User: Fold this.
Amino acid sequence: MKASLASCVLCLALLSPSHAAAAPDEPVAGRISVEDFFHKDDMRSPRLAPDGKHLAFLAPIDKYLSVVMLDLATGKLTPLARTEGADIWEFFWK
Assistant:
């Protein structure tokens, strides 16, 4: 009974007029621009090391995606692998 009552309250809250969509000519707070939406992230494919002390990820170095390691204790970044003229798309801890 408690779960169904909570579900009803949630549905009513979501359907209330305060959550209605803004008119097309009204500015919407927090709207993401098209440029920002399609912007490439500086950090991709983060992978935690098996020991839990490092995080490796793909990041652009000289325009190409490279493997970078972050020491979680010190915050030090270390480039691990990069290529000339091509992106690295995948890596794994071994």
